């Protein structure tokens, strides 16, 4: 592949594909250079370093994930929106394991502010949770509950960690039902203040 054909978008897309095929941790500038048939130095006109490349993959994957979630939750509210959100999240995580792993890295907050995809993620997630009557700081607490539940379940499922004969989808549905109950009955401080 000629060097002239390389663009930052093509390099990042190839890195995302490589992550899905071989694992996010195996994505290196050298591996990408081999993929394109060029020297490592040729890629440094498109990405600053490995960390820059990985952050770009994370932003690409985050945008793809929220696009799928947004399409799933459109026109829905409450438990129906939560189930659609959860289902789209899980489907993406299982279909794109490397891209999904990229979405779990810590991204500098200044980049988050500049990323339309990550701002949209916050808007859609917080919008869904506001339908449960939540406001800060409960919104942040609820986001952390959802993220840790979804991520933990998907990570265990992808690793084959559920050995019991119970259907994995049935357990997922129950988990979403339980999250709905938790959100609908969220423990709020009586005066709106937080305990110490």
UniProtKB/TrEMBL annotation:
Keyword DNA-binding attached: yes
Keywords: DNA-binding, Transcription, Transcription regulation
SUPFAM superfamilies, A to Z: Homeodomain-like, Tetracyclin repressor-like, C-terminal domain
DNA-binding region(s), chain positions: 28-47
Residue span(s) of domain HTH tetR-type: 5-65
Name of the featured protein: TetR-like C-terminal domain-containing protein
Source organism (scientific name): Streptomyces thinghirensis
